[in-house]
Amino acid sequence: MKTTSVSGAALAAASLFSSFAAAVQPLTVNGANFITKSSGNRFSIPGGSSGVSQTSDPLSDGQACLRDAILMQRLGVNTIRVYNLIADLNHDECASIFNAAGIYMILDVNNGFQDSYLDRTAPWTTYTNAYLTHVFSVIEAFAPYPNLLGFFSGNEVINEQSAVNAPAYIRAVTRDMKDYIAKNVDRDIGVGYSAADVADLLSPTWEYLGCELANSTSSKIDFFGLNDYEWCGDATYQSSGYNMLVEQFGNTSIPVFFSEYGCNLVKPRTFTNVPVLYGEEMSVMSGGLVYEWTEGENDYGLVNITSADEVHLREDYGYLATEYSKLDQNLLTSANSTATGQKPPTCDPDLITGNFWSSWDLPARPSGVDALISSGISSANKGKTVSVSSTAMPASVYDYNGQQINDLELTVLAEQDSNRPGLAGNYTPSTPTGTAAATGSSSTGASSSATRSSSGKASSTASQSAATSSGAAAPMVVSSGAATFGAFLASLLFL
Ligand SMILES: *[C@@H]1O[C@H](CO)[C@@H](O)[C@H](O)[C@H]1NC(C)=O
Ligand SMILES: *[C@@H]1O[C@H](CO)[C@@H](O)[C@H](O)[C@H]1NC(C)=O
Ligand SMILES: *[C@@H]1O[C@H](CO)[C@@H](O)[C@H](O)[C@H]1NC(C)=O
Ligand SMILES: *[C@@H]1O[C@H](CO)[C@@H](O)[C@H](O)[C@H]1NC(C)=O
Predict the structure, then answer these.
(1) How do beta strands 79-82 and 489-491 pair?
(2) Among 57-71, 256-270, 449-463, which stretch is predicted with the lowest mean pLDDT?
(3) Distance 249 CA to ligand 1 centre (A)
(4) Bias regions of kind Low complexity — which residues (predicted)?
(5) Residue whose CA is closest, atom 6 of ligand 1?
(6) Distance of CA 172 from the midpoint of ligand 4 (Å)
């Protein structure tokens, strides 16, 4: 909805030693579900959002990230979505803080700068070597973080204004990203697309991007996000149109979730949609990311950041926390064998509903891009996890009634845990599953990267069984298949 927002999803678990940021467990995509590799549990996304700054990359300011991560962890968020990232900046502190908080990140590779996005009205003018160099640099910058859940290759590129063949360019960018990851990154990282809230375009976009193309298998998206603002105030499953989504995506072969949600036509936002979104009726979906973290002109914020060291929780934050706290974690973490077994349909014009592009003759790579993929970006700025030593809230925080909230701090989670509502308040690490050595030595941080490389690429059938054989602190891996985001999707918004 907002091109300046940043979103990311994070599910992170850290070692028992708070000075070490351990890796979170990797997620795989198994059919239509996101799955935590080590346990085989489904992962749904509960989300919140975080706004950091209007003019800078939100994951480059460690103090702001610590402040936001503490408040998101307390809320129960397991994933943030972040937009407007700048590949050359240092993101180590922020990524490590969210990792320690048990929060995954879903990142948009595009931003508004020159050579950093596809022009929806004339994508062929911006699908260039310079653009793909930007995209690959973002991949290099974030791939090393274990709590990276995945990337969006595009956000709302397809809308009423877009060129008719824009969908083919999105598949091409997805292909290039996945080929780059396969060649240059030592684990699988999912690449998805985030669709605009335009009813007519939703089904065909998902059909076009999510089908199997024999001559370009890597151009298929791994997950589908939709920006959805149709539930306002006290709507219902039927009146909101959520029932139609369940019908539409009932047989999805890839995870589908709200990449933004939270209508604000009725204020305050009481989030009565949350129990429905995470309830049995909508189990085909993998959660959603609330738009957005920081209050700004368009009035969607969960928190009002009045200065770098002063935050006021809005009424909406409290309503969301209440709804999150009631969620049925058992339901959210149950994998569904029908959903995980869904196979993508073969791309075919008959698959596409409505008036939409239905040719899969994808644009060829711009000159020089094959070489970029085979050799990797030279002297890329690659992130690395760092220890999180400071956990105290660096800002003054006030509740909705103006009361100051004291003693807030980051709870560093063990690597087998991702954040969920109520976890951080009185934290005891859960029993590790699989071979994960969460109770092991303080070298968890180091082992995470080793595991990451050894856990490698999950095959499409690997998700659940492979999980138990992966080592400690494996990152989320997206294989093909249906995985459920069994956690919350929180969106960080940024004004
Ligand atoms: C899902 O698949 C079943 C079995 O093939 C079919 O009967 C049903 O119509 C499909 N639903 C949708 C929404 O495509
Ligand atoms: C957020 O804080 C600013 C600065 O104090 C204030 O002007 C604004 O009204 C606040 N917004 C909301 C929605 O509380
Ligand atoms: C399992 O997934 C299928 C779709 O793949 C869905 O129709 C069914 O309702 C789901 N079952 C449960 C218990 O959520
Ligand atoms: C790949 O397959 C699609 C669909 O069959 C076709 O339209 C396209 O021309 C093929 N591309 C190449 C490079 O052969």
Answers:
(1) parallel
(2) 449-463
(3) 10
(4) 428-462
(5) 251
(6) 12
